[in-house]
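Why predict the complex rather than its parts? Because the way molecules touch one another can change local conformation, and only a joint prediction can capture that. The input here totals 736 residues.
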Amino acid sequence: MPFSFIDIEEKKTRLIGFLLFFIISFYFVTAYLILLVLKNSVLASFYEGQRGLGWPTGKETLAAFGIALLIGLIHWSSSTSNLIRRMSLAVGARGVDEKDTYHQMFKNVVDEVSVAIGGRPIRSLVVPTVACNAFALEDFAGRAVIGVTEGLLTRLNRAQLEAVVGHEAGHIVNGDCLSTTVTCSLAELYEEALSKVSKGFRHSRGRGGIVILMLMFVMGTMKLLSALLRYFISRQKEYRADATSVRLTRDPLSLAEALYLISRNWRGMGAEGEYLESIFIMSPRPGYFDERQGAAANWFSTHPPIQERIRILADMGHCDPKTLEENLKKFQWVSPVAKPIVSAEEDKTAEKKWMVFNKEQKWEGPFGLEELRKLTFLTPDSWICPHGEQSVRHAYEHEALMPLFGGEAKAEEGAYPCPHCHTGLMEVNYEGAPAMRCSYCEGIFVAQDAISRILIRRDMTFPEEVVRLAEAATKQKDLFQKGRTRYKLENPFILTCPRCHNKMRRQFFVYSYPVEIDRCVSCNGLWFDKQELEVLQYIYEHKDKFFDGQGF
Amino acid sequence: MVFLLVIAVLALLFIFWFFLTYNRLVTMRVRVQNAWSQIDVQLKRRYDLIPNLVETVKGYMQHERQTLENVIKARTQAIDAKGLKDKAQAENFLSQTLRSLFAVVERYPDLKANQNVLKLQEELTSTENKIGFSRQYYNDEVGRFNTLIQMVPVNIVAGTMNFTKKEFFEVSDSAQREAPKVKF
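Output of the joint prediction:
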């Protein structure tokens, strides 16, 4: 590692000292300025006739310093307590979902990189947004976190993800992650306050306005200063983290590809926490100085030029950026989710015979449906093969066999009941996200946090029927503008939520995606009848086709 | 008198330096041992995953008995292997057989469409990577340790206090050697 533990500790102490000094002197200057202004404007009217008010006296300066010290310490302690929790809330990150295929892969990758840096535990977080970005956080106790967005998980392959996580781990082992986290946390207070005040200004009329304008001026000055503080942390740290990533994963080309892909996508501008730009692998706010070299750019941009980063990495891999770009055009993203094979003859199940793999690990059969029902060892998990074919699958993957297990599924303790058929729902993996499907009516229950993942991911290909349904749904524009549903319902609360047993309301997913779904009034879980989810996905994934600028 | 004092100060300085260096070497040795136990954890994890994988794919692979048996045999060999060299060799053999198993899996579209198989494959890939990374870390640490104990002033301490060179956990598999992603 580039630094020994002692070096890092020393660096940490120096950093804390420097930042504390900065904060307190910053408050002192501010307090002094305010004192100066007050003395020469407001107070001057009390001391009429007395000259020489211009500069504060020694006592007043001392008082200003005392106040600055107090406020500075309060600010410091509030900003540095619970550092990781507050910062990950600011970007909207959550823990990984163990049942989710993508999340599991990401967690594995983080664990691998944590092994590569010597077994230091790193927690993994995911931000549920379409944006493409990654970040790392660290606190004084040495707890570290690496987070990525859902958008990144659906666009990078494993090697590229590994390289990105390696880059973030580089920040952690190089020791610059802590300084970035703390400075961002210190600045966050103002960024947040400023955005609130400016909102207040827009809504206020008349007298309050002038006060708020003054407040905004003060805040603006503070913001500028805190921005300077943030830029003080050099751009060089990104180059160093890139180098560390290459040293850990030995794969510079994947990192170059990942940077290229991230730079070509939306990086989260305008989303939650975009102002925390220096914690991300690439700034969410594209700015004037981003692609420039030189002193001014070094001062006003948190990240080095992306072209330069890619060029250096491509050089390491003995490849020039042009070829890299060409290769990326041919780049095929591989989904970590299994694609079910649907054979055309599936429907002709009437006379079908089945082979079953029994407990002694031998194939038995062929059996007809009625004979299968009598087999005691048959469970939904059993291996089964249509007679005369070579496709071995679990019994639950064959829809024709579902009636065999109906009784069992109903009896299963704790299974959520289907709102239509009242049989137990089966846990399935839908585009890598956990969902629950009814094996009779093929409706799907999706929890609130999983739906955005399903919409972002693009593992599925849609049959002709879904495409036609989607086209039909988007065409009837005038019908749904009047209410929450396409046709007026006397009582929109038709179904009962399988999870919390509250009522579900029939309504459009949103007005722009006019697919009728049932949303639970309490837990916001969604119930999709057969094909409703596919139609919604199709509309979402082909937005451009349906909304041609004059749409809704 | 002054001469004696100088000698005494020098001797004290030397003892101080000696202790400091000794402590540094001990820290590094512990880190090497720690890095080794990291590898061990990952290897054990792989031993645990293999039976699951074999169980899952068994049903599909009636004609691939040989591949499956090879994997199981390689696993047993790896568990029984003693000594760093044998262990490295056995582990490499196991990696090879696993790779050939996954190559076979690629040929069965039914297997590729099975979420369980895919999950296990992901777990095993991850474990393979972790083994690779922990080996990389171990070798880095061993390299640093070995360099340090041979350097000129430190080798006095290392020699008197019995610090010996550590062995690398090497990749003796020629296929693995030939497939680096980057040529530096």
